[in-house]
Every structure is written in C-alpha cells, then in structure tokens.
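Check this:
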Amino acid sequence: MAIVTGAGRAFSAGADLRDRGGQQSGSFWEVPSLTSFESGMEVWKPVIAAVNGYALGFGLTLLAACDFVIASDRAEFGFPEVRIGVPTIQGAVRMPRRLAWHHAMELLLIGERVDAQRAQEMGLVWKVVPHDALMDEARALAGRLLLSAPLAVRATKEVAWRGQELPFAEAIRFGETMRRVAGGTEDAQEGRAAFREKRPPQWRAR
C-alpha cells in the first residue's frame, strides 16, 4: 500500500517548461514515452493520492493511475498542455477510462484548472478535506485497507484493471484463475481460520 503526496505548494505541477531538454536515452522502441507508467511498472498494491496543492499536466495523469484520490480543499487540477500548444498523451488515454467522456474532455481540451470541489463532482476526487486534515485522512484510509488480506487485495485490483480490457467471459475466467491462486495462500487459510475462531486475522502476505 502506498500514499503519494507532494512537498510544498504542489502535489505535482508537471514538466518544467523552462527546461528545453527533457530527452531520454534509448530508442523510441525502448522508451514508449518520455515518462511512461507502462515502462515495466505494474503496481497492484492500493495507491492513495493525497493531493496537497496543484496537480497539473503529468501530475494529473499520475492521479488517474491511483486507486483513491483525497484532495485538500486548496488543491487545483488541470491539463494546461493545449494552452501551450502541445497535446496531452497519457492523460488523454487514461482520463476517459476514469471519467465520463464530457468530464474528461473538459479537462483535456479546455485546459483550465478546476478546484477540488469541481474535481469531486467530476468523479476524479473521492473525498475533499480541510488542508490540515489531508494526511490524517489518507492514513486513516490506509489503515482500513490494511485490514484486508494483501494478496487478495492485489489479486482483486489486477482483475478489476485487466478485466476492463478483456471480453466478459475471458475476464471471468481470468478472475477465477486468480481466485485459485490466491485461495492457495497461507493468508487464505488464515482468513478462514480467523473467521471460524472469531478473531482478527494476522496477514503475512504469503
């Protein structure tokens, strides 16, 4: 389980427009994009974004890869790329999967910032809290997530994610395979024993 947050006034304000470089080593085929979450990175643990300020450009794309977004009432969100003459790429791929089409297009094509309340109305933000309560709220959610069996949580998240890309029957078959894998773990045995014995389970992620 992870909590992602920023330091200072921003969660992440995206690329530094004063930087004229930004090129990465490696060929186009080795590096699918300059900053790709898909470059061998799959995170099946729950990820909480605690948005403490500006979440702009690729910082907003990062939010689309998180499972829960808790925002300070001071937070602001936006894709400014179209206002400076460049397209949004990964955000354009991820946002329509997370939001209703018109909400995704509001962020991607208009290029204006929205406040935390509007982001919550769009479905981008799960909860808006007073700025000083942000990290307490994120840690409280983390505590609730830690009550669940970690391997079962990871399997469920992977099925939820991959299932969006599969036909229904194939998604169910994949899920049932994951159920068999997770069902054979020590944690699954511990969960059943704890239920019978009416005690809290002791998860070991094994």
User: Anything to note?
Assistant: The longest strand covers residues 47-51. The helical segments are 58-64, 90-98, 101-110, 116-122, 134-145, 150-163, 168-183, 186-197. The two ends are 16 Å apart (CA to CA). The chain has a mean pLDDT of 90.
